Amino acid sequence: MSATAVVTVVHHRGEHLARQRESLAASSTDAFEHVVVAMDDPALVASGVAGAALPRAPLGLPLAAARNRGAEVALAGGARTLVFLDVDCLADADLVDAYADVVADEPGTVWSGPVTYLDPPPPGGYDLAALRELDSPHPARPAPDPGERVHGADPDLFWSLSFACSDTAWRRSGGFCEAYVGYGGEDTDFARVALAAGLDLGWVGAARAFHQWHPVSRPPVEHVADVVRNARIFHERWGTWPMLGWLEAFEERGLVVRDHEGRWSLSR
């Protein structure tokens, strides 16, 4: 395996994965491997694309465990740089090289890159050669320009859509906490774990990605049980509540309640 591995976890996102793979094939480097982890996705396993597979956990999709499994496969193959890219993300041509360079330069930092959320694709799909014309990073996250780096980043702004770290940083962190199952919380937890392990958090402007459009709920009401369960796990581990915007929006809809001690639970 190459010294750099891109890890993507997938559940029934075949078309988005295919477009991501097209974007990676257009990278300015071919010195990387793509490790795809199928989560409860027999069709993807049958296609031969997946390098590893996990079943659905009793409580939902094992997102944290799947990322750990992808890292395990990559490290076993000799990867020194781990790039984690959400299946919905298209890679800028320089993303892989940019992450590999910054990780080699500063291996004690977990690096994130700006992500642009795309509008629905035109007929025929997104023009991969013209992605940079659509560059407009999410306003709620740091967005350094290409060539710039930001250090000492806020762990509450870390996300798992696009990030990278060295093999040594990954091992120091211990990976994602697999107590989190389903949607939400595991990436914020990982950022806290990284800091606790003595790692820094940073943003690198040259590692840009583009999130393919798909329908979403705001707040994600279909994931309310996951969010509440994972928020409680986070609170037990760190003493604060994550995802407060979602929890408060659920509360307004009568889906969750807070007790007199401020603990959240599903409405009965």
From TrEMBL:
Coiled coil: none annotated. Keywords: Glycosyltransferase, Transferase. The keyword Thylakoid does not apply. Residues 162-204 form the Galactosyltransferase C-terminal domain. The keyword Membrane does not apply. Pathway: Cell wall biogenesis; cell wall polysaccharide biosynthesis. Belongs to the glycosyltransferase 2 family. This is Glycosyltransferase. The lineage of its organism: Bacteria, Bacillati, Actinomycetota, Actinomycetes, Propionibacteriales.
